[in-house]
Write a structure and sequence with these properties.
With about 300 residues, the chain is of the alpha/beta class. The chain contains 13 helices and nine strands. The two termini are about 25 Å apart.
Length: about 300
């Protein structure tokens, strides 16, 4: 089995939908705990309109306050030209852009059509490249839309081909509302790999219908080497009704390690931070490994 890279998204995707307020200092603590737990990269901030997502308004300050090690592994979410300008000003080394696969969701999430987002991505990617910033672009709602229902695989693969024109360092497939199933995931990944060539594929799964980990295993079996996950399984999209959290980092790491994949993260170190996070959220984190413990038990 190959090496799997973990992209921790709890400081951004995990917190953006929380009713409990996290201070800048608490966000820094969360990030540093994840870095100490051995995640490979980490989404630390969202450079979006603070009026739409007020939980992310302190993104530049969070990035400024974290350690140099965490900064080197940091990713910032960018959705438009103003976002990349803010990311450049902050000095973040990598950005993630999102292209929503359906027009209805794109309008609600980013006030644009899907094609408008493609055009914005091509502009943002050029600006990022000129600034020496690494880029990844994700196709959101690739496995289903909360407003339009099923999304044809042909549409998603066409979008993969279009975003490839922006020369991203990585392309993602995101199950934003947790509607995908393993067979669908395997087929989508296989189709995308034929298009992207040597560009790495990254997958982002939510556990809304309890299939997130099965989907991650299906993707890993098809050769995906980069996965997003959220400590404790917290998260959700403010613009996707009923969407629940991302797949839990602890659960993903445990499953992949037990399945023979090489994953550098340390579950027990991660769960030290999960324990703090659970206390902050009144004990409400979805991670099953956090609740049940690592097996076999470690002395």
């Amino acid at each position: 089995m190959g090496k799997i890279e973990i992209v921790e998204v709890s400081p951004r995707d995990g917190l953006q939908n929380q009713k409990v307020e996290f201070t800048t200092a608490e966000k820094v603590r969360l990030i540093e705990g994840c870095i100490a737990g051995g995640v490979d990269r980490i989404e630390v901030a969202s450079f979006v309109n603070p009026k739409r997502v007020p939980q992310m308004a302190d993104g530049p300050q969070v990035f400024a306050d974290i350690s140099p090690e965490a900064q080197k592994k940091s990713i910032g979410l960018v959705l438009n030209e103003r976002g990349i300008e803010r990311a450049i000003e902050a000095g973040i080394p990598e950005i993630n852009f999102v292209v929503v696969a359906t027009d209805t969701f794109a309008q609600k999430n980013q006030s644009s059509t899907t094609q408008g987002l493609i055009e914005a991505w091509l502009t943002v990617s050029k600006m990022a490249r000129e600034a020496g910033i690494r880029t990844s672009v994700g196709i959101s709602a690739a496995f289903g839309c909360p407003y339009e229902g099923e999304v044809p695989m042909s549409r998603v693969l066409d979008l993969v081909g279009q975003v490839l024109e922006g020369a991203p360092d990585e392309i993602g497939l995101a199950d934003t509302i947790g509607s995908g199933a393993p067979a669908q995931v395997a087929k989508m990944v296989a189709g995308a790999r034929k298009i992207v060539g040597n560009v790495p594929l990254r997958c982002h799964f939510h556990n809304t219908r309890n299939a997130g980990l099965a989907n991650a295993y299906a993707a890993a079996s098809e050769g995906v080497t980069v996965f997003d996950s959220s400590l404790g399984g917290i998260g959700g999209c403010p613009f996707a009704p009923k969407a629940t959290g991302n797949i839990p980092t602890e659960d993903l790491v445990w499953m992949l390690q037990r399945s023979g994949f090489e994953v550098g993260a340390d579950i027990e170190r991660l769960m030290e931070t999960t324990n703090w996070l659970a206390e902050k959220l009144d004990g409400q984190v979805p991670s099953m490994v956090f609740k049940a413990g690592v097996f076999p038990p470690r002395s």
